[in-house]
Design brief:
single chain, 564 residues, alpha/beta, Alkaline Phosphatase, subunit A, 2 domains, two-stranded parallel sheet, elongated
């Protein structure tokens, strides 16, 4: 017969197993323990590393069994050691929450490039991706979790023996060994992501720690390599510009604009109605590939002579060639403070005569007004300059796609920023509305260039996945991310002065091109050539070769290959 008691007491050897279970079941502390167990086991239900459709039932079973044993071992340690519980469980919950949130929200894993981009971005850009509701949910979850940990430790830790910890630890080690043994017999040992499944939920902790260490070691070398690159030298050109020749060039380093969402490229929606009125003066490349799928990688291919397949530049940005040729060079870009080791964009855009930061509020719809005002102000400031080169970088169509209440053409566009994959049609509406605003921005700028010998070169760093392959962001590998927009606008005066160049550019729009061509084409448009010039990558040359896309697009996640 079970004695009544106010709180759980150690069971004696005379009590039966059934009596013990009944006694435990009546204790409130049991429920606190169950909640902690669920906090560890729930991630197994949505294990992001097992979502892919792998054919083997035994591999999945082995990984789940190993993960369950790992969770039980962590639970046992948490109940036995108070401080381990206070720090380990919330930390594991945080990593699991972020990994699963990013995977379900954006459709990507937290990888090296995501971590590096986060370290190099500004606070405004990062905070814009965190909604108020998701913050409240997570903070509430942590507070409740801490409460359950406190109660569970207080009531249960006396009754969990080190023997139980050793048993769960042994089961964890054995199950992991069996899981890896089964995986290695059916798959390559290093196949991602299946090889990490048995480590869930601490796999993200170990992987992200490795990524951080890689950033602090590898990235330092890459940034130093970019800084030490020799500047390109000007060489004689058959028809160099004289001091009296005019050439006003704006290079708009765009952000996250897909070429297949531009009306000027045949997109059925009216996303670029104003640029359509300039169609005779625009040459748009409909089959264009990027150097990378995130900004920090793409700008290397856009500004240096690095190529998609041979990812090692031998020359610094082509901007210095303009400066050496007597151009007034101005850089206008969004505020982006230095990261741990600076950023590839800051390094490659350092050699300008004048720098101007554009403040951007990522949460407001009118985010292009400042860009237009700064470009017009720069044009006015240097109105007497015959040779002027302006580089403009702003937020473009970067996430989140902030709705434009007064200019929403495609509705509804109020997609869920917490779970955009559930609102893809609305997200596409919002994205297309953003493209329309970029269309207005560009048109207002080129309107100020119409009475000049001028060029407006728009090249996006990468695109963005809009539900393809269950992704919603830049950084994913899909045609939407590695085929960004690229077009050139010529003023009437430029067309009259350089008809052969315009004809060659328009002729080459039928070819497949990439960021590889920018280093050689942009100076050539302004009658400049460098010692690194390649004629077959110059789109002003009618015989420029067509780009051969890589077989493995994962190469676009790598910045520089220093091993070559």
């Amino acid at each position: 017969m079970i004695e009544s008691c106010d709180q759980l007491t150690p069971c004696t050897s005379r009590q039966s197993i059934i009596s013990r279970i009944k006694l435990l079941w009546t204790q409130p502390s049991l429920y606190f323990g169950l909640v902690i167990s669920l906090c560890l086991i729930i991630p197994l239900i949505g294990n992001i590393y097992l979502e892919s459709d792998y054919p083997s039932f035994w591999v999945r079973a082995a990984c789940y069994i190993s993960s369950v044993c790992l969770c039980l071992f962590v639970f046992a340690l948490s109940i036995k050691i108070k401080y381990f519980a206070y720090f380990a469980i919330p930390f594991i919950a945080l990593i699991a929450f972020l990994s699963y949130y990013i995977k379900t929200t954006l459709g990507i894993y937290i990888d090296y490039q995501i971590i590096a981009s986060m370290l190099e971005t500004n606070i405004e850009e990062s905070s814009a991706l965190i909604s108020f509701s998701s913050s409240i949910i997570f903070i509430s979850f942590l507070l409740i979790l801490y409460g359950f940990i406190w109660f569970s430790y207080k009531r249960l830790h006396h009754y969990l023996t080190w023997k139980a910890i050793l048993i769960t630890g042994g089961a964890c080690a054995l199950s992991r060994y069996m899981a890896f043994l089964i995986i290695s017999t059916q798959y390559y040992p290093n196949t991602f992501p299946i090889r990490y499944s048995a480590d869930w939920p601490i796999v993200d902790i170990t992987m992200n720690s490795e990524h951080l260490m890689e950033y602090y070691t590898v990235e330092r070398k890459q940034f130093q390599y970019l800084q030490d690159l020799p500047k390109p030298k000007l060489v004689n050109h058959p028809t160099p510009l004289s001091d009296d020749d005019e050439c006003i060039t704006i290079f708009h380093l765009g952000e996250s604009v897909r070429q297949d969402h531009l009306q000027i490229n045949g997109y059925p929606r009216e996303t670029t109605p104003k640029l359509m009125t300039e169609s005779d003066n625009i040459a748009s490349f409909k089959d264009h590939y990027s150097y990378g799928v995130v900004t920090r990688v793409s700008v290397i291919g856009m500004l240096t002579n690095a190529e998609v397949k041979s990812r090692k530049p031998t020359s610094h940005s082509f901007v210095s060639a303009f400066k050496d040729a007597g151009y007034m060079t101005c850089c206008l870009k969004q505020t982006n403070p230095k990261s741990v080791y600076d950023s590839s964009m800051n390094i490659l855009l350092a050699d300008f005569c004048q720098h101007d930061n554009i403040y951007v509020d990522y949460n407001k719809a009118q985010k292009f007004d400042q860009s237009v005002e700064r470009v017009k102000a720069t044009l006015n400031e240097h109105a007497k300059e015959k040779k002027l080169f302006i580089c403009l970088y702003d937020t473009g169509a970067h996430l989140p796609f902030v709705p434009f209440p007064q200019a929403s053409h495609f509705t509804p566009d109020d997609y869920s920023q917490i779970n955009p994959l559930s609102d893809i049609p609305k997200a596409i509406n919002s994205y297309d509305n953003c493209i329309r605003e970029i269309d207005t921005e560009i048109y207002e700028i080129i309107s100020a260039l119409k009475d000049k010998v001028a060029l407006y070169i728009y090249v996006a760093d990468h695109g963005v996945a809009l539900g393809e392959n269950n992704g919603f962001c830049g950084g994913a590998i899909s045609p939407g991310t590695y085929q960004p927009a690229f077009f050139i606008w010529f003023s009437d005066k430029y067309k009259e002065k350089y008809p052969e160049i315009v004809q060659s550019i328009k002729q080459n729009t039928q070819k497949t091109v990439s960021h590889d061509y920018l280093y050689h084409t942009i100076p050539a448009l302004c009658m400049l050539r460098t010692d690194q010039y390649q004629k077959d990558l110059d789109l002003t040359n009618p015989e420029a070769k067509s780009f051969d896309p890589p077989e493995d697009f994962q190469i676009m996640t790598k910045a520089i290959n220093l091993d070559d």
